[in-house]
Amino acid sequence: MNVRNRVAVVTGGSRGLGLGIVEALAHEGARVKVVARGTADLDAVRGRLDVETFSADIADQQAANRILSDHRPDILVLNAGAIPPAGPIDRISWDDFTAVWNTDVRAGLYWLQAALNLPLAPGSRILVGSSGAAQQGSPQSGGYAGAKRMLWLMAKYANGVSQQKALGLRFQAILPLQMVAETGVGGAGSRGYAAALGIEPQAFLARFGAPMTPRQYGDHIVRILEDAEHESALALGLKGDTGITVLEGGQA
């Protein structure tokens, strides 16, 4: 897929990794539409980049159906999510433990269902934001790791439905394999883990190797969309020093 002139919807695209994705897609000539809740951040993105913006709650099923029905994107990037409340398993409340499930997983379900049931046009690409925590766990983040693993599985399930119905849609899970300090989740996570270990956040982030900025993350997303070598993978990991790694192949 060449992203130039393609319609791309990016949830959570007004800041952090989502903003990096929006910047990279817009730079390559995609017609980007940004979905987020914060109107001030959306205004800033719209004023700086040639994009459309929509204020909506990603976990609103009607909003997901309406936006996909109205704009029929060729590319859908599900990036938005909640910052997981910090706390070890012996101290965290149920509400905090399930916060990411009630936002990220619920939103993932609604947007994937909308893409399948409309459906989007054959050849459309749907990238589902997961996390390296889906592989390694995240003991200071409640149910975060399980939620991100569920999103990975949901991309796999959606591919199965697409194949059964001959829809021609392609779903892929995208996993940043390191914390990115310039994001809400990465900043909060690095501070929380650093405090638990009694070290500075930068020392904790250094354990991941070369840093990855949101824009570098966005450039990797464009490469995943445009390079045939990544087209058939189900799950791909992104990291500053190793770039793009196939974590699981196939689509079914």
Give a written overview of the molecule.
The chain is of the alpha/beta class. The chain has one domain (7-180, 214-248): Rossmann fold, CATH 3.40.50.720. Helices cover 45% and strands 17% of the residues. It is built from ten helices and eight strands. An eight-stranded mixed sheet has the order 3-2-1-4-5-6-7-8, with helices on both faces. Strand 1, helix 1 (16-27) and strand 2 form a beta-alpha-beta unit. Helix 1 (16-27) crosses helix 10, helix 3 runs parallel beside helix 5 (99-117) and helix 5 (99-117) runs parallel beside helix 7. The radius of gyration is 17 Å and the shape is globular. The mean pLDDT is 94.
Globular, elongated, flat, extended or rod-shaped: what is the shape? globular
Query: In which order are the strands of the major sheet placed?
Result: 3-2-1-4-5-6-7-8
Taken as a percent bin, the fraction of beta residues is 15-25%
Number of domains: 1
Helix proportion range: 40-55%
Going by CATH, the architecture would be 3-Layer(aba) Sandwich
Largest beta-sheet details: 8 strands, mixed
Number of H/I helices: 10
